[in-house]
């Protein structure tokens, strides 16, 4: 393999690791904010569980990203010392928590994608990628079961919960589209599988699939929503106040 | 009565009381209050530490902190489970706390002002909690004793993690070390007060001791904490904020200066730095979660109805 | 009709139309829509810039930005005042906007992603607004024309402040300069599109021109903006993100490449990066403010009743 | 004057400038967050106005603080490069915006104090202090008129507004006490004047003065509530990301 080809492979692999790692990290950060503020103790525990799984995955992906990059950046260098324009998380992961419906719909739309992507990455030619994907896939199956279950409960619960859930679904829907614009993976096939799964859950939840086909995008180029820079300001503040410190 | 005598004899013989056993009303009431307050403490205790999850300075520390706060929610679950075996309603007890009719540990009415507070809470607050709780693993009420066994195991893990944060800070930059000292300065006395008022002022102790709900006096446990902690502080190179602290070679104990009990009673009374906010945060979560809990119930009811319909 | 003829003759003679004058229903309707949309734009325009007030990197810049956003609220006030002279209800118009039945300037559906966006908005967006608005100072409707005089004065101040931010960034560190270039890359085309669709596709222009509501065509104004801005960008040392940009020596104009009008129509349709959020933020403020407005009214009513009581 | 005495005077003057300057800065920062989110356009304008006045005052106080300190720190060095433990703003100024009642009650309790303090500082022996105080005093008279007016409107408005305002008054009351623990000024006299004024407005507003006499404190030693470090993380993020940059 020529040097050029190798570096192209590495760049694409690096991008993939950031895509997955940043998405997991940012969503985990959002979920962590529920800790102590959930609607029931059991939910606090379950949300924290998901946050922990995602954080664990983020660490694996970012460590691998650093390894692939070969510039000496470890998971913390990547998490704490990049600016928002350098983050590659999906836009949907940085959307605010909102109410419980918003958190759960966001989670469901993401989980459904996450599971399918990890399934495909489980057969990636790079064994390190395949190994992380296989481990994460197991965890995500559980996340998806839970978030789908909540979407059904809230959609098919009370009048109020139905209205809130439909509103949040309409709100978040434009952020779903960019999930399928991923290198290395067949976006169309992914979308078809995702659609089938999401449609089934929405039907159970008595929710209407939004008609809009428009997809918000930009995160692949580091063009995020206004939310990310605020999230990072908080996440990175202590680390950045003490450059070079060990914790 | 004969029942009371038999009850006390069983306790004296170290036979555990189980939920279906006969027990004196006062025993049930005392235990209900004690376990519920302990459960509430775990729930409220999630807040001060939760305050730093978003800002943990490394991903590993963030993981550990998330897991710790999750454990606290789990402890609350065990404890609410134990208290329910006494015939109490978990929601009713929780609402008593929300309304300010039941207490939780006063230590959580202090703010967490820097990352070093997370280390200090693990080291001192969990350290004190363990000393308080280890004897409870042998307490007379079976479900409580068993819950405490699980909890103590996890707490000692937390305590080591907290101390580990302190080690990193104290081996770190001058700013990190200063952060650690500042946190110790603020948490030391509140931690010392976690064992409750001095023995002379502590009420109900005799009965609780006879029932094996309380196995050591406040001052005994406090001394144990001090003897354990002072050398740790020295090992870290931190100074305990007590000019009167001295080693008493005769007894082999560290003796501390006078405790400002007025602060203790003030915070219990509601005048701690964060009492209002902690309760407000828990009330907000509960109130804003109402529609979610209702939706879950409504959906469960619909589903049950449908499955009956299908069965018919 | 005779009235219509007299109306047009007055306009042709540059006599201002005043609120009590007779005017054609279509003139009133067109103006109401135009002024209201302009007012709504000022209100929504507070959001993208307001997003950086809390993070302004120096106290002086924070002051200037706060004052600017306040000016925008003031502009909205003048404009709602002007539209009320046409017999419209300010609240009704505002609620039309909240419900998505009335538009505001599409430019505010783009996000502000860094501090440099604040400079760029002042420089480009206010720059474009001024070019759009200066002719309106001479428009036929008196109250609108007078409001525009005040507004244009302030806008040109804002434009200079925005440019001044850009100068600082471009003379600053490489990271600052890169931030400035990045902001220009994102805002350039949306700013160019602020003048509306090309003349061929613009509707109602002829009638608006005859009424002296619209004095120049979209493309004329756009060209003016480009000719003004390109040298400024060069002065800053920034690159305009248009490979086809070229100076046409014959005409003395800068010629830009093809505009992606599909983006323009998409954003107008509601599919811009922030349409949903901007409307949601305004609706939230309005809804959450309802109890405050009600309280103020209730108190005023009580006070009025008491003063009548006292007078009786 | 001996060098020791001079440095004592300076330290106390420095502390005074930080007390006033930080309080104005932090409250201004809170008010700025309302911009574009107020209950009516007129309120957006009025709140911004107050925010601007306070920010202007903060700049004067912090510049003077830097001058007194003589260590070469200007207003921005003091605003952007100190940590929460070094800030000396009153605790009440860092309390969250909450709803409009909370913002207005916070403002009223602070304004009533602010006006009285500035009145007294108008006769300060240091002419620089006296000049800033005189200028600020004029602005604060207007702030106070407005915030008192709103407390009355909300207290004596609807049932809902009354309940919200009373609740927020109870919530914020413990943060009022530390305002009177100020060096250089007779706290008891200040408190008496403040009490008289506040009581009159509360009576008009049909609100009950909270019975508690307990005072939350600590800001004089830089011991703040959990809110300040978050507020600063946001306020300082851009400046700190670019050390040494000019803006």
UniProtKB/TrEMBL annotation, chains A, D:
Top-rank taxon: Bacteria
One Pfam family linked to the record: PaaA_PaaC
Source taxonomy: Bacteria, Pseudomonadati, Pseudomonadota, Betaproteobacteria, Burkholderiales
Protein name as annotated: Ring-1,2-phenylacetyl-CoA epoxidase subunit PaaC
Any single Gene Ontology cellular-component annotation: cytosol
GO biological process, one term: phenylacetate catabolic process
Cited PANTHER family: 1,2-PHENYLACETYL-COA EPOXIDASE, SUBUNIT C (PTHR30458:SF0), PHENYLACETIC ACID DEGRADATION PROTEIN PAA (PTHR30458)
